[in-house]
Specification:
The chain is mainly alpha-helical. It contains six helices and three strands.
């Protein structure tokens, strides 16, 4: 279990950010008898997901919705599943917009620079592509 300052330092965030995520319900710390907030490993995982989604330029309200779906019970609920796929669709739309925005810059790269970009994207994109193939294959 981590106190607010410890988890903030561990995740390279401010205490204020941790406070905000707690206030909006992303994080649910346990209160001690002396009213300290203690954050568990689940909070670390949630903060990892928030960071991941933020890196994909996903808005915080959509991040919260996605995380709430993941935190919900694991019984199969068609409505929850459809909502989650809707979130994935929104995320894919954001990625398409990002690609469209950087395409003119990519066209100006020399061959070596293009190879560096492809190598970076390949290491991150392959697991995603494999997961999508498993889901829809």
């Amino acid at each position: 279990m981590y106190r607010i300052g410890e988890i903030a330092k561990l995740k390279n965030l401010s205490k204020r950010t941790i406070d905000y995520y707690t206030q909006i319900g992303l994080l649910n710390p346990v209160r001690t008898d002396s009213n300290y907030r203690l954050y568990g490993e689940d909070s670390i995982q949630i903060l990892d997901l928030v960071e991941h989604y933020k890196n994909l330029n996903m808005p915080l309200d959509e991040i919260k919705s996605s995380i709430e779906l993941l935190k919900a019970d694991y019984s199969i609920d068609k409505e929850k599943l459809e909502k989650h796929f809707e979130q994935i669709g929104i995320l894919m739309h954001h990625l398409k917009e990002e690609i469209d925005a950087i395409e003119p810059f990519l066209q100006k790269l020399n061959q070596h620079q293009k190879e560096m970009v492809v190598n970076k994207l390949s290491s991150k994109g392959m697991p995603l592509a494999q997961t999508l193939l498993l889901l829809f294959g």
